[in-house]
């Protein structure tokens, strides 16, 4: 997965455009800004977004676990970024459907990272798989599958 370009490196124009569009997506979404979402990797139909731990995200004060709604927003946003980073997709996207299976409570006090992959694209729909992970990357917090709109296909690369 490509990450943000190192200073002095030759930028990949399409990656730079995808990264710019994805960062703009986060800035346009008030909930993404409120959660402090940050793109940590992006490229070739894959995205990784981190949500740092904040006390105001806790759903149950007795346990200190981040609320499932925050995890849902993180996974949805990451899925959309993965679609926007797919080599065949041009433009922004919108969620059609998102199914999330919560596997366990996140570890209190830890941020959560979502990793999403856009694994199939048709003329109008992109299909995504995603995981939400805390520091215990061997045991996901949640997994998701989703469909997203494809606004326009890019011309095939030669």
What are the key terms here?
158 residues, elongated, alpha+beta, 35% strand, six-stranded antiparallel beta sheet
Portion of residues in beta strands equals: 35-45%
| Uncertain parts | 1-11
Total number of helical segments? 3
Radius of gyration: 16 Å
Average per-residue pLDDT, rounded, comes to 88
Number of strands: 10
Secondary structural class: alpha+beta
Q: What oligomeric state is this?
A: single chain
Tell me about the largest β-sheet.
6 strands, antiparallel
Strand order of the largest sheet: 1-2-7-8-9-6
Shape, per Cα inertia axes: elongated
Helical fraction equals 10-25%
- End-to-end span in angstroms? 21 Å
Order of helices and strands: HHEEEEHEEEEEE
